[in-house]
Amino acid sequence: MTGPKYITDIRKVAQLPAQERQRLADVTRRFPFRASDYYLSLIDWNDPADPLRRIAIPDPAELEAWGSLDASEESAYTVLPGLEHKYDQTALLLVSDLCAGYCRYCFRKRLFMQGDEEVVRDITGDLAYIARHPEITNVLLSGGDPLFLSTPRLEDLIRQVREIESVKIVRIGTKVPAYNPYRILDDPTLLDMVRRYSTAEGRIYVMTQFNHPRELTGAASEALDLLHRAGAVLANQTPLLRGINDDPEVLAELFRRLSWMGNAPYYLFQCRPTLGNRHFTVPLEEGYRIFEQAKQHCSGLAKRSTFAMSHATGKIAVVGLDDRHIYFTYHQAAQREDIGRFMVYHRNPQAVWFDDYTLPVRSCGVAPHRAPPAPHSR
Prior knowledge:
By secondary structure, the chain is α/β, with parallel strands linked by helices. The protein has 11 helices and 15 strands.
């Protein structure tokens, strides 16, 4: 892979004082570190609170015993090694356990920790499962980052998925355009592959993750344009992150610039209660207000994002607040009868996850209301 170099030892980040490098090495013994020199060059090292620094550089706060390594209970929907089938139409393949950078807030950081074996190497059995389930029309390649794979390996995966007649959309979940756009700029064979497999009858969707407007550099913009011209459909998703994009003006700028580039804002996710993530979390009700304030400064095309939680039971969207209540709906759900369910709970300003709401007022849907699971581990 050409372009920027990768650094995996925090002690080699020359921009950090030696004493801080040593202190952060204790964090990386638990949660590994990886960054590109390109991304590190975007950080304002004179600002200890720089948002890109917060994304990429470890923090001792990660060692706080809060949250779990599988906050959305992905293991409950793993049907074969590397294959998750939570929603009828969508299967998720974990095809890589490496990324161009390790986001400090990552909800799958367990993949990068020693001893995890969730990523699939041989997808033969997974493909057979998908073929047996014609309701699966979307396959999401994730990890890790699929664009960190070599192009021949990625093309082989996509070719095999495309051979399943019922699969119409292949999604690639990636932060490579932010962490190392030269992976795209310097590899014309990657763009050739997109042209071959993103067709009029079934598109390749590149699901990017830009968290802050400063990640949208000239190189990143050019990389997105090349993917677009090659036939990929672009959409962006980002968690809401304390100290990174929890300002309505910053979030609005991110949404606007993405829309100008043809990269549709798709999901704004509540930061999952993953181990080590407490310092990134914004309370849900505060997050909803930030989201709504940001949308006031956006065109319709820029405010298509949905503010939601990837909960164990489905994608739960926050759709309203009043003086006493918070309003939710299942945007997507593991149980079909839950899709579209409207739920009203008594407000809890400290809540950071659906499970923190324990006093339901009412639930409207096809099936009777079911109380949420027990509160997540703190």
